[in-house]
Amino acid sequence: MYSGQSTDELLALEGEYRTDSLVLVFEQALDQKAARVGDKNLTREERTILAIEAFEREVNNGGFSQFFVNSSKEYAPFLVEALNDLGCTEIAALTRQAMKSLGIEGTITVEAIDGVMAVQDEEREAKLGEYDSRYFEIAGDVAGRLLDFIKRNRHKIVLRT
Predict the structure, then answer these.
(1) How far apart are CA 159 and CA 144, in angstroms?
(2) Mean predicted lDDT score pLDDT of the chain
(3) Which of 25, 51, 52, 67 could lock 75 by a disulfide, CB 3.0 to 4.6 Å apart?
(4) What burial letters (b/e) apply to 7-44, b meaning 16+ CB within 10 Å?
Protein backbone atom coordinates (compact mmCIF):
# COMPACT_ATOMS: atom_id res chain seq x y z
CA MET A 1 0.00 0.00 0.00
CA TYR A 2 1.33 3.41 -0.97
CA SER A 3 2.13 5.68 1.97
CA GLY A 4 3.75 8.81 0.56
CA GLN A 5 7.15 7.63 -0.68
CA SER A 6 8.96 9.32 -3.54
CA THR A 7 9.76 7.58 -6.81
CA ASP A 8 13.34 6.95 -5.70
CA GLU A 9 12.24 5.65 -2.29
CA LEU A 10 9.94 3.13 -3.97
CA LEU A 11 12.60 2.10 -6.48
CA ALA A 12 14.98 1.48 -3.58
CA LEU A 13 12.62 -1.31 -2.51
CA GLU A 14 13.39 -3.34 -5.63
CA GLY A 15 14.51 -6.78 -4.57
CA GLU A 16 12.67 -6.58 -1.24
CA TYR A 17 9.27 -6.92 -2.90
CA ARG A 18 7.99 -8.73 -5.98
CA THR A 19 8.14 -6.62 -9.12
CA ASP A 20 4.39 -6.80 -9.70
CA SER A 21 3.77 -5.62 -6.13
CA LEU A 22 6.13 -2.70 -6.60
CA VAL A 23 4.51 -1.51 -9.84
CA LEU A 24 1.11 -1.85 -8.15
CA VAL A 25 2.29 0.61 -5.50
CA PHE A 26 3.28 3.04 -8.27
CA GLU A 27 -0.21 2.67 -9.71
CA GLN A 28 -1.76 3.40 -6.31
CA ALA A 29 0.45 6.45 -5.86
CA LEU A 30 -0.46 7.78 -9.29
CA ASP A 31 -4.17 7.14 -8.72
CA GLN A 32 -3.88 9.25 -5.57
CA LYS A 33 -1.99 11.94 -7.46
CA ALA A 34 -4.60 11.97 -10.24
CA ALA A 35 -7.34 12.41 -7.63
CA ARG A 36 -5.45 15.42 -6.24
CA VAL A 37 -4.31 17.17 -9.42
CA GLY A 38 -6.50 15.68 -12.16
CA ASP A 39 -5.69 13.10 -14.84
CA LYS A 40 -4.80 15.79 -17.36
CA ASN A 41 -1.98 16.99 -15.11
CA LEU A 42 -0.15 13.66 -15.15
CA THR A 43 2.91 13.24 -17.33
CA ARG A 44 2.86 10.92 -20.31
CA GLU A 45 5.07 8.53 -18.34
CA GLU A 46 2.68 8.55 -15.38
CA ARG A 47 -0.27 7.87 -17.68
CA THR A 48 1.70 5.05 -19.28
CA ILE A 49 2.04 3.35 -15.89
CA LEU A 50 -1.69 3.69 -15.19
CA ALA A 51 -2.62 2.46 -18.67
CA ILE A 52 -0.37 -0.59 -18.56
CA GLU A 53 -1.44 -1.57 -15.05
CA ALA A 54 -5.16 -1.22 -15.89
CA PHE A 55 -4.70 -3.17 -19.12
CA GLU A 56 -2.74 -5.96 -17.43
CA ARG A 57 -5.24 -6.31 -14.61
CA GLU A 58 -8.24 -6.51 -16.93
CA VAL A 59 -6.76 -8.77 -19.60
CA ASN A 60 -5.34 -11.16 -17.00
CA ASN A 61 -8.68 -11.34 -15.20
CA GLY A 62 -11.15 -11.43 -18.08
CA GLY A 63 -9.46 -10.77 -21.37
CA PHE A 64 -9.70 -7.97 -23.88
CA SER A 65 -13.47 -8.02 -23.60
CA GLN A 66 -13.25 -7.19 -19.90
CA PHE A 67 -10.79 -4.39 -20.66
CA PHE A 68 -13.24 -2.91 -23.16
CA VAL A 69 -16.27 -3.04 -20.85
CA ASN A 70 -14.71 -1.86 -17.60
CA SER A 71 -13.60 1.66 -16.73
CA SER A 72 -10.05 0.76 -17.76
CA LYS A 73 -11.14 1.40 -21.35
CA GLU A 74 -10.42 5.07 -20.63
CA TYR A 75 -6.82 4.20 -21.53
CA ALA A 76 -7.70 2.55 -24.86
CA PRO A 77 -6.96 5.63 -26.99
CA PHE A 78 -3.45 5.80 -25.48
CA LEU A 79 -2.75 2.10 -24.87
CA VAL A 80 -0.98 1.06 -28.06
CA GLU A 81 1.35 4.03 -27.70
CA ALA A 82 1.98 3.16 -24.03
CA LEU A 83 2.79 -0.45 -24.89
CA ASN A 84 5.22 0.71 -27.58
CA ASP A 85 6.83 3.13 -25.10
CA LEU A 86 7.37 0.15 -22.82
CA GLY A 87 8.99 -1.86 -25.61
CA CYS A 88 6.07 -4.32 -25.78
CA THR A 89 5.75 -4.03 -29.55
CA GLU A 90 4.17 -7.47 -30.07
CA ILE A 91 1.53 -6.77 -27.44
CA ALA A 92 0.97 -3.31 -28.94
CA ALA A 93 0.36 -4.83 -32.38
CA LEU A 94 -1.99 -7.42 -30.90
CA THR A 95 -3.87 -4.73 -28.99
CA ARG A 96 -4.17 -2.67 -32.17
CA GLN A 97 -5.71 -5.73 -33.87
CA ALA A 98 -8.11 -6.26 -30.95
CA MET A 99 -9.22 -2.63 -31.17
CA LYS A 100 -9.62 -2.90 -34.93
CA SER A 101 -11.82 -5.96 -34.43
CA LEU A 102 -14.30 -3.73 -32.60
CA GLY A 103 -15.12 -2.19 -35.97
CA ILE A 104 -14.89 1.39 -34.77
CA GLU A 105 -14.60 3.85 -37.63
CA GLY A 106 -12.08 6.64 -37.01
CA THR A 107 -10.62 7.44 -33.63
CA ILE A 108 -10.94 5.03 -30.71
CA THR A 109 -12.87 6.76 -27.94
CA VAL A 110 -14.50 5.55 -24.74
CA GLU A 111 -17.90 6.46 -26.17
CA ALA A 112 -17.25 4.48 -29.37
CA ILE A 113 -16.10 1.44 -27.35
CA ASP A 114 -19.20 1.70 -25.14
CA GLY A 115 -21.43 1.77 -28.22
CA VAL A 116 -19.82 -1.34 -29.70
CA MET A 117 -19.63 -3.32 -26.48
CA ALA A 118 -23.28 -2.58 -25.60
CA VAL A 119 -24.31 -4.82 -28.50
CA GLN A 120 -24.01 -8.59 -28.00
CA ASP A 121 -21.81 -10.05 -30.74
CA GLU A 122 -20.65 -13.65 -30.45
CA GLU A 123 -18.31 -13.34 -33.43
CA ARG A 124 -16.56 -10.32 -31.87
CA GLU A 125 -16.28 -12.12 -28.53
CA ALA A 126 -14.78 -15.18 -30.21
CA LYS A 127 -12.24 -12.98 -32.00
CA LEU A 128 -11.35 -11.20 -28.73
CA GLY A 129 -10.94 -14.66 -27.15
CA GLU A 130 -8.39 -15.51 -29.84
CA TYR A 131 -6.51 -12.31 -28.99
CA ASP A 132 -6.61 -13.29 -25.30
CA SER A 133 -4.95 -16.62 -26.10
CA ARG A 134 -2.28 -14.94 -28.20
CA TYR A 135 -1.69 -12.36 -25.46
CA PHE A 136 -0.94 -15.08 -22.91
CA GLU A 137 1.51 -16.68 -25.34
CA ILE A 138 3.53 -13.48 -25.85
CA ALA A 139 3.06 -11.35 -22.72
CA GLY A 140 6.08 -12.44 -20.75
CA ASP A 141 7.18 -10.21 -17.89
CA VAL A 142 5.21 -7.01 -18.47
CA ALA A 143 5.65 -5.97 -14.83
CA GLY A 144 9.43 -6.22 -15.22
CA ARG A 145 9.32 -4.10 -18.37
CA LEU A 146 7.13 -1.58 -16.58
CA LEU A 147 9.56 -1.35 -13.67
CA ASP A 148 12.43 -0.83 -16.13
CA PHE A 149 10.38 1.92 -17.79
CA ILE A 150 9.82 3.56 -14.39
CA LYS A 151 13.55 3.45 -13.65
CA ARG A 152 14.43 4.95 -17.04
CA ASN A 153 11.87 7.72 -16.59
CA ARG A 154 12.13 8.29 -12.83
CA HIS A 155 12.63 12.04 -13.27
CA LYS A 156 9.26 12.31 -15.08
CA ILE A 157 7.35 10.37 -12.42
CA VAL A 158 6.59 12.60 -9.46
CA LEU A 159 4.47 10.92 -6.83
CA ARG A 160 4.39 13.68 -4.23
CA THR A 161 3.18 17.15 -5.15
Answers:
(1) 20
(2) 96
(3) 51
(4) beebbeeeeeeebeebbbbbbebbeebbeeeeeeebee
